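Session log. Operator J.P. requested a structure for one protein chain; no other inputs attached. Running the standard single-chain path with token output.
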Amino acid sequence: MAEQSRLVVLAGPTAVGKGTVAAAIRDEHPDVWYSVSATTRPPRPGEVDGVHYHFVSDEEFDRMVAEGELLEWATVHRVARYGTPRKPVEAALAAGRPALLEIDLQGARQVRETLNRDGGPEALFVFLAPPSWEELVRRLVGRGTESEEERERRLETARVELAAEAEFDVTIVNREVHDAAAQLVALMTAPSTDSEA
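Structure written below.
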């Protein structure tokens, strides 16, 4: 019962494949509740509002922050804001479902701070790492969704994000999506006692 309502926070550098791993979990493990973040950035091709993100205006995001509706929020890549709506996370955990937050490094830090301050649910913080820096660069360039300027900004951000690995409870190296997803699900459904890793 209570040990099934585990909150797992997945973070890692830009382009490491967090979204792809989370999507594999969503497709293959419908028992895992997956948080859908709110964002002020426009949708990328193929993204669906309410499935990939809740796409909101700057004004709506301001309202959500002011009314305490976000578990965490941050400005990412100095451009768009992202945040995790609080109520759906709390409802999933109360229903006894393992819950996954796939967020950026700033957001993971805020969740840890919020849970420590508010005495929230136990959470396991998982860092998704690339097999190598070269592979991370290849993935970012290969997806072709950013301009050259945006790519450079994201690579600069990724260098900083990689240095934060030690802040996490567990590291999973994303060599292959389904393997990384299986490792993450195993952590999510394991009894939440004693040490992790």
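Operator note: The mean pLDDT is 86.
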